[in-house]
What we know:
Blueprint: H1 2-14, H2 22-28, H3 33-44, H4 48-66, H5 71-77, H6 83-94, H7 98-104, E1 127-133, E2 136-146, H8 154-161, H9 165-174, E3 183-187, E4 198-208, E5 218-222, E6 225-235, H10 238-254, E7 257-259, E8 264-271, E9 277-288
Antiparallel strand pairs: 1-6, 2-4, 2-5, 3-4, 3-8, 6-9, 7-9, 8-9
Amino acid sequence: MISALNELVGLVEEHLGEEPDVPALAATLGTTEYHLRRMFSSLAGMPLSEYVRRRRMTVAAADVVRGEDDLLSIAVRHGYGSTEAFGRAFRTVHGAAPRDVRRDGGPLQTQPQLRFRLTVEGSTPMDTRFADRPAFRLIGHATRVPLIYEGVNPHIQEHIAALPPQEHVRLKSLGDTDPAGLLQVTDDLAQDSPEGTELTYLHGVAVSRDTPAPDDLDAIEVPPGTWAVFRSSGRYPDALQTTWAATASEWFPSNPWRLRPGPSIVAILDRAEDFTTATSELWLPVEPA
């Protein structure tokens, strides 16, 4: 996976003025675009689309400062059809318009070319198991929330807090298959979404495909497949988020599996009364690499 990500970075550099053909590269590497983008986002700390834009604007800034070409020529060279579209992208990255930077020489925010390197990690074994599951459904109360990579997501907290206590009891009584218990489900997340992107969050339970669900509950249909299940314990949500990050930095590069499209599921197995600590399982949909 490390070499695949470096090939992806090289592809971006070769085609800064156009969209890189990520599906074709993924096919030649024997993986999927979905997995490649998800691993890039997890390890780089930004989605591939954001990295491409930053690199384009880093190279474009040199052309702007040199002043040898007009701004429209520079915009077209870097994949933009107008100076307006180029100017918006330029300002987003650098915080100033191209004309101002040409006049003043800055300010500029440079994005270095990424290089992924293998480091010796994994001294702490990851508690992992696999589960082959038939098709099932996730039912509960769903909402749209912004993606937040670190810390507690207050929008999810508000959604859960708005449910009356008896509703949690009712949901738990409806669950009849694994993953067991009350579940935190995220779905409809694009392959390389930046922080703030909206996703579907569902607070609910898993039921068999043929189990009838009450009309007042939302449902997510889950196809059959294999799941990698990662167990974590400690401060919540820190321990869970650390485990989630380690799946990308340590587990997937070391194991012959890749992510497949589907919801990510967190099952809380045990927790402190104030929820400062918890034992949880992270369920990720996977397939052989």
